[in-house]
Amino acid sequence: MIRVEFLTKSFGKLDVLKDISTEIKDGEVVAVIGPSGSGKSTFLRCLNLLETPTRGRIYINNVEVTDPKCDIQKVRQNVGMVFQHFNLFPHMTVLENLTYAPRKVKGVSKAQAEEKGMELLERVGLAEKASVYPSRLSGGQKQRVAIVRALAMEPEYMLFDEPTSALDPEMVKEVLDVMKSLAQTGITMAIVTHEMGFARDVADRVLFLEGGKIAEDAPPDVFFSTPKSARAQQFLEKVL
Ligand code: ADP
Ligand code: MG
């Protein structure tokens, strides 16, 4: 479980996250939505300390990651992250992208890492791309590789920050389909997305961020049909 208590993040005088408290339970799929600049990326990045919270505490599996004594590298092994821009290692083949961290960080053997890597590539329909370099892939293929590269570490948690926002429209579905089947495996996921149909279908809960606060926390059917706040109503009128 991820537990967030009174999380505040400021950049200089700018208060980006304001006293946020919430939980993401094991196996839960949480969609984080909200206007641009509302703090969605900062929220996600605070969870694995890519940003250092200004105040508040974050616990992952009951380990306080905001404790200065916490071994954050160890925690991050258990928290995969996928960004808008795929960030694949350009000088490595697809399979090398998948095997690098398990070998380097976890000490998995080359043979085992490659076997697992090929399994993962098959799962996303990209086994035949194992030996090509990322520059030869489409955006959708790159993002599917980025997802399975994170999965190669066998994390319990996956964080996605607008994984389809940089893709051409015809490639969005292939990535959402991968995320949808991943959600069905029971892995815990937090997904910042503008794909409202996906959020409605796949998420167990929607967190609506506005001005650095959680303005709404509701199951998708409730959020999309009867949003409580005027802000959420306005947002949905624009995007639906
Ligand atoms: P969202 O992902 O919802 O669009 P962000 O979390 O990226 O929002 O950003 C929220 C606010 O914080 C924005 O005003 C943004 O300009 C500001 N911000 C984000 N990262 C930084 C940073 N590293 N330094 C200064 N301001 C930042
Ligand atoms: Mg963002």
UniProtKB/TrEMBL annotation:
<protein>
    <submittedName>
        <fullName>Amino acid ABC transporter ATP-binding protein</fullName>
    </submittedName>
</protein>
<keyword id="KW-0067">ATP-binding</keyword>
<dbReference type="InterPro" id="IPR050086">
    <property type="entry name" value="MetN_ABC_transporter-like"/>
</dbReference>
<dbReference type="GO" id="GO:0015424">
    <property type="term" value="F:ABC-type amino acid transporter activity"/>
</dbReference>
<dbReference type="GO" id="GO:0016887">
    <property type="term" value="F:ATP hydrolysis activity"/>
</dbReference>
<dbReference type="Pfam" id="PF00005">
    <property type="entry name" value="ABC_tran"/>
</dbReference>
<keyword id="KW-0547">Nucleotide-binding</keyword>
<dbReference type="InterPro" id="IPR027417">
    <property type="entry name" value="P-loop_NTPase"/>
</dbReference>
<dbReference type="InterPro" id="IPR017871">
    <property type="entry name" value="ABC_transporter-like_CS"/>
</dbReference>
<dbReference type="InterPro" id="IPR030679">
    <property type="entry name" value="ABC_ATPase_HisP-typ"/>
</dbReference>
<dbReference type="GO" id="GO:0005524">
    <property type="term" value="F:ATP binding"/>
</dbReference>
<dbReference type="GO" id="GO:0015716">
    <property type="term" value="P:organic phosphonate transport"/>
</dbReference>
<feature type="domain" description="ABC transporter">
    <location>
        <begin position="2"/>
        <end position="236"/>
    </location>
</feature>
<keyword id="KW-0918">Phosphonate transport</keyword>
<keyword id="KW-0813">Transport</keyword>
<dbReference type="InterPro" id="IPR003439">
    <property type="entry name" value="ABC_transporter-like_ATP-bd"/>
</dbReference>
<dbReference type="InterPro" id="IPR003593">
    <property type="entry name" value="AAA+_ATPase"/>
</dbReference>
